[in-house]
């Protein structure tokens, strides 16, 4: 088995192949997880965002990856009393679908407990919060210092190059149809005091109907992401409009307001969204 791409997906495929006693090689053009995997929200694929798919498609694989991640609580802030039964029912359904694989049962926080946990939350209109659990994945990397070129023969090739999937396919046939739609995901890094060490925050409905996470990461807080169509480039750069969008959404929750000069760093990831021909990603 030859795996092309040393990100989260490629590394996972290679590990799975090795544990099945398959001869396995993995090739990566730069450093392991140096692309999309290192510029992500650091969340394992799944969670309440995929609840509908898990139920409607009976896709229980969404909750069957217990061996890599670190348990992390996520706070869903409530600003209206009617949101409590609405979100509570959905998140409890997620617990039910997970069954014995449930990481930890969700629970409700009062306004005072939410502020105790998240001191930087805005108090205006805050009525409480719901805590549910996803998992954050930590990735290790290593470099080959020699840079030698050699041929690899394999009966099976796994294309795990993410947004570069189509460019690799076209190396075999230039006329092959594209199966992926690249999407830009921007994150900003703000000071760590905006989130506790072991718990994040979810904005379930941004001004344009998307979802944004604020999560602890390396003693800082990472906030994002965006999801806009883009072109595939080797070294993508964040767009100012996307950065301003995240800042404006963060200000709805955190106090004092997060200004542009509080942004410690930012990163831009290219995500692979599939066309209809490609099925699920």
TrEMBL record:
Enzyme class of the recorded protein, top EC level: oxidoreductase
Record Gene3D superfamilies: D-Amino Acid Oxidase, subunit A, domain 2, FAD/NAD(P)-binding domain
Domain of life of the native organism: Eukaryota
InterPro entries (UniProt xref): FAD-dep_OxRdtase, FAD/NAD-bd_sf, G3P_DH_FAD-dep
Obligatory cofactor(s): FAD
GO BP annotations listed: glycerol-3-phosphate metabolic process
Keywords from the UniProt entry: FAD, Flavoprotein, Oxidoreductase
EC code: 1.1.5.3
Pfam family, one: DAO
Domain named FAD dependent oxidoreductase: residues: 1-135, 153-258
GO molecular function: glycerol-3-phosphate dehydrogenase (quinone) activity
GO CC, one annotated term: mitochondrion
Alphabetized PANTHER family for the sequence: GLYCEROL-3-PHOSPHATE DEHYDROGENASE (PTHR11985), GLYCEROL-3-PHOSPHATE DEHYDROGENASE, MITOCHONDRIAL (PTHR11985:SF15)
Family statement: Belongs to the FAD-dependent glycerol-3-phosphate dehydrogenase family.
Name of the molecule in the record: glycerol-3-phosphate dehydrogenase
Protein's organism: Sinocyclocheilus grahami (Dianchi golden-line fish)
Lineage: Eukaryota, Metazoa, Chordata, Craniata, Vertebrata
């Amino acid at each position: 088995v030859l795996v092309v791409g040393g990100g989260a997906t490629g590394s996972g495929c290679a590990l799975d192949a090795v544990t099945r006693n398959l001869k396995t090689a993995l090739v990566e053009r730069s450093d392991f997880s140096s692309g999309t995997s290192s510029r992500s929200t650091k969340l394992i694929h799944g969670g309440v965002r995929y609840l509908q798919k898990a139920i409607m498609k009976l896709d229980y694989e969404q909750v069957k990856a217990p061996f890599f991640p670190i348990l992390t609580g996520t706070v869903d802030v409530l600003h209206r009393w009617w949101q409590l039964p609405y979100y509570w029912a959905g998140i409890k359904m997620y617990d039910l679908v997970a069954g014995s694989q449930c990481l930890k049962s969700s629970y409700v926080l009062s306004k005072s407990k939410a502020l105790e946990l998240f001191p930087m939350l805005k108090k205006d209109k805050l009525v409480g919060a719901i805590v549910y659990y996803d998992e954050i994945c930590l990735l290790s990397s290593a470099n080959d210092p020699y840079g030698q070129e050699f041929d690899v023969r394999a009966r099976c090739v796994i294309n795990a190059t993410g947004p570069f999937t189509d460019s690799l396919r076209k190396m075999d046939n230039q006329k092959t149809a594209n199966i992926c739609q690249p999407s830009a995901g921007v994150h900003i890094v703000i000071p760590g005091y905006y989130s506790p060490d072991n718990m994040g925050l979810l904005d379930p409905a941004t001004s344009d109907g998307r979802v944004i996470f604020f999560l602890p990461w390396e003693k800082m807080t990472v906030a994002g992401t965006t999801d806009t169509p883009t072109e595939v480039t080797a070294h993508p750069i964040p767009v100012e409009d996307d950065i301003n969008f995240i800042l404006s959404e963060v200000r709805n929750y955190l106090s004092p307001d997060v200004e542009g000069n509080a942004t410690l760093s930012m990163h831009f990831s290219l995500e692979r969204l599939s066309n209809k021909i490609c099925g699920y990603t």
